[in-house]
Structure formats: C-alpha cells, structure tokens
Design a protein that fits this description.
With 985 residues, the chain is α/β, with parallel strands linked by helices. The protein is built from 42 helices and 19 strands. The strands form 5 sheets. The chain has a 7-stranded mixed sheet. A 5-stranded parallel sheet has the order 11-12-13-10-14, with helices on both faces. It has a 3-stranded antiparallel sheet with strand order 17-19-18. It starts with a strand and ends in a 12-residue tail after the last helix.
C-alpha cells in the first residue's frame, strides 16, 4: 500500500518549513495509526507519504481486506483532519492510496542507529506505487487481483484498463468506494460460517423420534459411533439447533489425558447446570448448588454433600470423609441421578456426552448408573464415540446406535459443492472440478477432512473464499497456465492437514498456538496471561487471529473468556511440534500458574498439576502431585486412574538419585498402589506380587517397619490365591507375630482372618479355622476397624471372620450355629455398606447353601453376588457368583447351561483369583457333569482336582472329592450309590 498526502501546493509553498511540517506530520501520523490499527507494518515514511505492508513481518489470512479497511480509515480520518485545518484557516489536505496484492521478498536492513528496517522488494510493490500515482486526491485504487480476492467485502467502481509503466499487458483498475454489505470489522474477526449441512437425514430423523419419545416419558439413549472426522459433533450441533427449545440441554465432553481425571466431564456438565463460573469462590459455588437444588425440590437436600464434594467443597467433619470409597462412589452417582431425574419432571432433559472414547472410568460409571433409570424419565442421553469405545447398553430396548459412515459419492460431491463454487472464476469450472476429484480421492468421504483441506487451500491462496463457496485463485486454468493443486502437498490424513496449517501460521501465531497446546485443550484467559510472556494487546490480537483462522473457539464465560481448541487432534499435532526442552519449560510454567491462580482450591487441579509437572523438568513436584492425584483417585474408587498416576510417579522417581529419601518415597508409592492393583487385576495378578515384593525390598533396605504389615498382607493374598502353601503359611505367621508385637487390635483382626483362611483352605483343620475366626470376631469393632478393608484392598475382616466361622461350623456338624454366623456376616456387611464385603459374604452364603444342598437359596445368593460385583467392578466375586449359579442351575435341571456357567467362572477365576479353591470348584463341575449323565467328564474334572490337592496341599474338600469319585465310579459301573446324609442341625 502506498499513501501520499496531497498538498494544495499554492498555499503550502508559502509556509515556513516548520509550519508545513506541523501540518504534514499529523497527516502522516493518522496514516500510520490506521495501518497499525489493522496490524500492518509501516515500511517507509518519507516526506509526505508512507509505504505500508500487510502480511509482513506479521502474517494474517486476510491481508488484502486489512489493507482496504486501513485505507478507508485513513481517508475518513484525513477528511476530519482537513475539516479541522479548514476551520482554522489552514491548508486543507487530501490523500491518495494505491493498493496491490502479491508476493514480495522482505529483507531486514540493519542501520547505524541499531534500528532494523524491513524493506519489501518485488514487482507487487511497484504496482502498488503505480496505483497510488494514478489515484486522484481522495481516492483509493486497487489492482485486479486485489479486487478479485476482496470482492463482496467492499464496493468497487470499475475504472477500466490502464497502461502501467513496466507492465506489458494493460491492467484492470478499480476504485474502492467503501465497505461491502457482506463484511464488517466485527464479521471479519468472527468465525467462518459452517458449511451447509449435508446428508445424515436418517440420523436426524432418528434423533427427533428419540427426543419425542423422551418428552413423552419414554427416555432414550442414542449413541453415535464413527471414526474421527465423520461429523458426530456436527450432527448433534444441527440437532440442537432444531430441538433445544423443547427442553434443557446440558453438554459435556471428554479429553484424551482425562482418563486420569475422575468425573471431569460430569463436573463440567454440572457447572453448566448450576451456572458455576471459573472465578466463583467456594462460598459462591456452594450457594449456587444449594440454591438450585433446594428450589428444585427441598427433599433433595440429602444429596448436597455429594454434589459439594464433586466440586471440592467438603466439610472436614462430614461423614463423607470416613465413608467407604465404594459407598461414596455409589451414593455420588445416585445423587446426580436423582438431580437429573427430578429436573426431568419439570422439563425434558437432553444430556449430551461427547467423545466417550476418552472418558474416565468414574464418569463412565455414572453413565452406566444413569442408563438404568433413563427408560421411564423424560431424558434423552446423546453420546458419541469412536469404534474402540465399549459400553454395556447395547441390549437395552431404549438404546439406539447410529453408526456414521463416510459420505457416499453423491453426498461427498454435494458437500464439496457447498464448499467450492464450481461456477465462479473467469477461467471456468474445469480446474475446480479437477480439484474436487483430488479432494474426494484424498479424503475418502470424510467431511472434516474435506472441510479442513479446503480451508488449508484457502490459506495457501490456491482458493479464494466467497459467499457462493471457495474458488480457485485467478491464474489456474485447464490448460495448465499455472500449476494445478495436484502439484501441491495435500495431506492424506487430518493430522497432515493440521500440521501443514500450523506450519504456515505466522511465527507469533505458531509460537502462541504451540504454547496453548501445552496448556491444554481448554483454558481460561487468566491462565494464558500467566503462562504467555506477551503484552496484553499483542496476546489478544494473536488470539483473535487464531480464532479467525478457526484454530481456536472462544467460549462464552463470565467473568473472563475461555478458549477451546477446535479439535483435540489439532492440539495433539501442535503439541508434537514443540521441542522437548521448550515443552518442559511450558509445562512447568503452566503448573506454577495453576498453583498461583487456584491456590484456594488446589485439590480440584491435582490431575492437571500431575499432568504438567510429570512432563516438566521438575521431578519432585511431579511426584508430589502424581501421588496426590493417585490417592484422590483411589479414594473415589477410580482405581484405573490411581494406577496411572502412581505408576507415572514411580517412573519419574527413577530419574532421581538413588538415595534413602528416594527409597522411602518409592515405598510409600508402592504401598499406595497395591490395593488398586489388587482391585483391578485380581488377587493372583503378577503385577500385585511385583508391587508388594518391591515394597518389601524397600522396607528392608530402609529399615522401616511402619508399612510392613500392609506389605506382608499383600504378598500373603497373592500366595494364597496361587495356592502356594508354604509361603502362605510363613507370611501368615509373620503377620500374626507382627500384630501381636504391636498389640494393635486392627492388625490382630486381620491376622486372625488370615490364619482362618489358611487353615480352612490348606490344612482343612476346621477347629483351628473356627478358633481363629472367633478370636477375630471377639476383637472386631465395626466403628474402629471399618477402614481396614480400604487399607488392604480386600474385605472387611469382621465379615470375613464371620464367614469362615460359618463354614467351619457347618463342616464340624454345627450347621445351625454356622447359619447364625452366616447371617451375622451378611448383616455386618449390609451395616457397613461396603460392597466388596457384602459380595464376599453373599458368595460365602452361596457356598454354605450348596454344601447343605439348598440349591434355590444358593442360586439366589449367587445371583445377588453377580449383580453387586458387576455393578462395583469386582471381577473375582463376579466369577464366584457365576460359578455357584451354574452349579445351582445344574441341580434344577439346566445342566448344559449350568456347566457352561461353571466353566465360565473357572476361566475367569484362573485369570483373577489363581488356584486356591479350584479343587472345590472342579468338584462342582464334576457334580454338574454327573447330573447330565457324563461320568467320564466328571471323573476327569475330579482327577484334575485331586492332582491339585497333591501338588498344592489344599485339603479343604479333599474328602468330598474322594466321595464324589467313588459315587461316580459306582454310577459308571451301574451300581446304585447311597443317598446323601441329611445335614446336621
């Protein structure tokens, strides 16, 4: 752009040079101010004119438009300035502007005053100068190319062809009259409009039908499954536009590292419901939650503590602090479910959960609970996910899955027709049709890929976006007068598209974009200010540019703005382009900013801090927050997240010098990790042995016995599960001796439970089993010892002692006393509301009833075990229930089904519970085979069971194995066996 202040020469020539300068300098300043307003660069300011650049050294997508807006502003300001001069009796001034668009080389010239000038060199600058020289005072002239790429944004007057010195062919020249009707400055900064919605008519129809059913009280779940980029989110967006007036819409999404952040999507959804803002303090959050709930229904007051806890608002004296993690988890789910069910009585609810392939296990647990109550509520639950996601809703009659496929040929062409204007351009449609074919081949009907490639080509300058759609930049032709886009690098995957777009950002945009990618997928402006060392105006400008290019979206928020990456994959690609050292520094800075900004509620950000510090160069902080995040996840029964955090902490710990302090920290981490590994992997998991063996080694090295009992207990559980008699016995003795030396009642209860289990399974000494179980019962205090189950990753020891006492009494011939102890075990487990203890007690009850040939009662207990264990994610106990239910079914004449379930239970127990108890389970299988007339298979199962007895020394049920073998042998030989004796009473 070239601008010059046109002087009224007869008047100004009579002025003193200083007076003339006093008139010209303000004019030059208003020119420069206009350039700077639109972020151009004044390359030269000489005499009575300036030369300005738009696009160097700072690049933008809309350089020509900025230049024209700046020119219009200059003319407007010059007219005002001229009016002021006229009123003062001074010399009126006018200005002429010439503009051209094209490529130039911009070089830096170092001057003696240590100032750097950026000087453009190229033909395009000459054309701009020629336009300025041709312009009449008060006018703005542009070249044909500038006109073509800005048409529609501005109004022009065609001036016809002009001969330009140094140019062979005449050029079409246009005068800018003003801003056009299609664009304002605000519109230019706003997002690009969405491409016309194409296809998906059947999916939209099914969504509408589901919502109508939900509004009528027949709740529905709809899952939209598809590969990345197929339009899952766009489908929901379009559906919301036409349906959200029919009810309350609440949305949540998951992100790829959250899996380690329990409840994150659910909390975000509740923030929307309660209208909680980022800057709300604890009091404000509490008031909003309580106010909304109590206005909704005062009978919901009892759910408030659970809602407060989700937001990190907890009274240290609250019963939630001491509540068993599984109970708290279940009641939290129930609290949120009650809230939504009650709200649905007032208005239909549309609950949208996006990107479930990245969902954390706790939010998934909530969705599983909510899904059970949707059928009779006015709720439409919309979910979308990639094919690798798995859920348990598939068999529900009120669940519908919509699988999005890539566009077919017709739909893809229609979509591209919405993106590309096949009729625009003086050169005809042929080149654009060739480009369409290329895009179809490269994208294979994936709409997101098509849209992003077109956007990339617009930014490359290959396409020009207009109201009717993008078109080829002038110069491309079917005859190949310029290279067609086939010679351009067009990525074959969306990662390539995004990487190419990022690389073509201006240096400051790219630098900021990379920093934001490290900060996270979504971030508040305050966090950006803390992390990015940049003047505020500059920061806003670059953020605005990234928004304009649709790398970022601005989200409505109060009291400050929040930003979101358009696509999670965009963030991932940008993150990967940051050099490691720079990445570490940014993670460190982000973590420090979070600590500073949210110091009053830091526990809400443990996962974020763990994420950032674990990727920084600060291992001490990383370990600190990874441990806190792991403990927090474990307390919420989010065992998978706990394992992820704690395992990462152990990896980071290895980078520190091998000192006693490091060993002590590792010991704490390993002991904390153990219960979560047991819960998720099973009693016999090799991972559990590795954790506790390493902890034992560290304990011996450090000479620290404070955590020895927990370590020995974990090793004991592993060895008894594997039916390793000798190490099991030795560990049991060590546990008892340690508990006695400490004279700790809680440890003694655990130790007697351990001894009861050893005597029951291995020696088969029922008297000793009963004695230890009864000693444990006598020491047990429900209030004092209720935390032991959480500490040792198993069952409540009181429940276990009652259970083993019941089985021992039955074996000793005191079935009625055994039944009383069994009822006591069940009652205690229900009183404690500890799911795994209750499931364990139910499984023991199933065994008790099977031993007494009470098959109906056994089946009921087994099914209750399965239901509870499945709900709580307890694989060992679920397998127990399956096995015992199979035996009961076989007794009731469903032999084949019963055998199948016993085999299913055996397979699951081999993976999770090891070998202990297997002779007994094989005996159940043998009995089932006997029921269906397959004595050979039955005897084979018994042979395997007796071989295990010989190899492991597990004596429980050994006598019964021989009895069954004799009975089956007689049956095989045709001799009738005696009836079972009646149980003792």
């Amino acid at each position: 752009m070239g601008q010059e202040a046109e002087k009224q020469r007869p008047l100004i020539e009579g002025l003193d040079p200083e007076e003339a300068r006093a008139i010209i300098d303000p004019a030059l300043q208003l020119m420069m101010d206009a350039v700077h307003r639109y972020e151009g660069y004044v390359a030269q300011a000489l005499g009575d004119g300036i030369f300005a650049l738009f696009g160097a050294p700072l690049a933008h997508e809309d350089h020509p438009q900025r230049a024209l807006y700046a020119a219009l502003r200059m003319q407007e300001e010059m007219r005002r300035y001229a009016d002021q001069l006229r009123l003062k009796g001074g010399v009126p001034l006018q200005m002429r502007v010439g503009i051209n668009t094209g490529e130039v080389v911009v070089r830096s010239i170092r001057k003696d005053d240590l100032h750097t000038d950026y000087v453009p060199v190229g033909h395009a600058t000459n054309l701009a100068a020629r336009m300025e020289q041709m312009a009449t005072p008060g006018s703005i002239l542009v070249t044909e190319y500038t006109h073509k790429i800005t048409t529609g944004y501005f109004e022009f007057k065609v001036l016809g062809e002009a001969r330009i010195k140094g140019v062979e062919e005449p050029l079409h020249v246009y005068e800018v009259l003003g801003a056009g009707p299609l664009r304002t400055r605000l519109q230019v900064a706003a997002r690009r409009g969405l491409t016309r919605f194409v296809g998906r008519q059947s999916e939209m129809a099914q969504l509408r039908l589901a919502f109508e059913q939900a509004k009528a009280g027949q709740g529905q779940i709809v899952g939209v499954m598809g590969e990345p980029g197929l339009g899952k989110s766009r489908l929901f967006y379009e559906f919301k536009l036409t349906s959200q007036s029919g009810g309350l819409v609440l949305e949540a999404y998951s992100v790829s590292h959250g899996k380690a952040a329990p409840y994150l999507p659910l909390i975000e959804l509740l923030k929307t419901y309660f209208q909680i803002q980022l800057q709300d303090d604890e009091r404000q959050r509490k008031e909003k939650i309580a106010g909304k709930v109590l206005i909704l229904d005062r009978s919901l007051e009892d759910i408030l503590p659970y809602l407060f806890a989700l937001f990190g608002i907890e009274d240290p004296y609250s019963p939630l602090q001491q509540m068993d993690a599984q109970i708290r988890r279940r009641r939290t789910f129930e609290a949120v479910k009650k809230l939504f069910l009650r709200e649905s009585l007032n208005q239909p609810l549309m609950l949208i959960f996006e990107d479930l392939h990245w969902i954390d296990t706790e939010t998934q647990g909530f969705l599983d609970v909510l899904s059970e109550s949707v059928a009779s509520a006015r709720i439409l639950m919309l979910t979308n996910y990639r094919p690798e996601y798995r859920h348990e809703w598939g068999q529900k009659t009120y669940y519908t899955q919509l699988r999005l496929a890539p566009f077919g040929k017709t739909e893809a062409e229609e979509f591209l027709a919405a993106l590309l204007d096949t009729t625009a351009g003086a050169t005809g449609p042929a080149p654009l049709l060739a480009l369409k074919q290329l895009i179809l081949e490269k994208t294979e009907g994936t709409p997101f890929f098509m849209e992003e490639i077109v956007q990339e080509l617009v930014e490359q300058g290959v396409l020009v976006r207009e109201a009717a759609g993008a078109r080829l930049r002038p110069g491309f032709s079917a005859s190949g007068h310029e290279l067609l886009p086939t010679d351009l690098h067009i990525p074959t995957t969306v990662q390539g598209v995004l990487a190419a777009r990022i690389d073509r950002l201006a240096p400051d945009e790219k630098a900021l974009f990379q920093q934001l990618a490290v900060i996270g997928r979504e971030f508040p402006l305050s966090l950006v200010r803390q992390v990015v060392a940049q003047p505020e105006d500059e920061l806003y400008r670059v953020l605005s540019s990234l928004q304009h290019k649709e790398f970022l979206y601005e989200q409505p928020a109060f009291p400050e703005m929040e930003y979101l990456f358009k696509h999670a994959l965009t963030q991932e690609v940008a993150y990967g382009t940051v050099l490691q050292e720079r990445r570490k520094a940014l993670h460190e800075k982000t973590a420090q900013a979070i600590e500073q900004l949210f110091q009053d509620r830091l526990d809400e950000h443990y996962s974020d801090l763990a994420h950032h510090y674990s990727r920084s160069g600060n291992p001490q902080k990383a370990i600190e927050y990874l441990q806190k995040a792991g403990q927090q996840a474990a307390q919420r029964s989010a065992n998978a997240e706990a394992i992820a955090h704690l395992t990462t902490a152990l990896q980071v710990l290895k980078t520190l010098p091998d000192t006693s302090e490091r060993a002590q920290k590792e010991l704490t981490l390993q002991v904390t990790l153990g219960p979560s590994v047991i819960a998720t992997k099973g009693w016999a998991a090799p991972e559990a042995k590795m954790v506790y063996s390493r902890a034992q080694e560290l304990c011996q090295q450090a000479g620290d016995t404070s955590q020895l009992f927990a370590i020995l207990w974990g090793l004991w559980l592993f060895h008894i599960a594997q039916a390793d008699f000798e190490p099991t016995r030795e560990l049991g003795e060590q546990l008892l001796a340690l508990a006695q030396s400490k004279n700790d009642s809680g440890l003694l209860v655990e130790a007697h439970y351990v001894q009861a289990a050893i005597h029951f399974w291995f020696s088969g000494e029922m008297v000793a089993t009963r004695e230890h179980a009864e000693q444990g019962i006598s020491l047990y205090d429900p209030q004092q010892h209720r935390s032991l189950a959480f500490l040792y990753g198993s069952f409540d020891p009181g429940v276990a002692c009652f259970g083993y006492a019941a089985l021992a009494l039955w074996a000793l011939g005191y079935s009625q006393q055994g039944r009383q102890r069994l009822h006591a075990a069940l009652a205690l487990a229900r009183e404690l509301s500890h799911p795994s203890s209750l499931a364990f007690a139910l499984s023991l009850a199933a065994v008790f009833h099977l031993l007494g040939h009470e098959e109906q009662a056994a089946q009921e207990r087994a099914e209750a075990t399965i239901a509870l264990a499945t709900e709580q994610g307890l694989p060992v106990l679920s397998a127990f229930g399956t096995l015992y239910r199979g035996r009961a079914l076989a007794e009731w004449g469903q032999g084949e089904e019963g055998i199948a379930q016993i085999q299913q239970g055996l397979a699951a127990l081999s993976r999770t519970a090891g070998q202990v108890g297997r002779p007994h389970w094989l005996a159940l299988l043998a009995e089932a085979y006997g029921k269906v007339g397959q004595p050979e298979e039955a005897l084979s199962a018994l042979a395997e069971a007796l071989d295990l007895v010989d190899r492991t020394g597990e004596r429980f049920y050994e006598a019964e194995l021989y009895r069954l073998k004799g009975e089956l042998t007689l049956k095989q030989s045709g001799v009738r066996s005696p009836q079972h004796p009646a149980p003792n009473t």
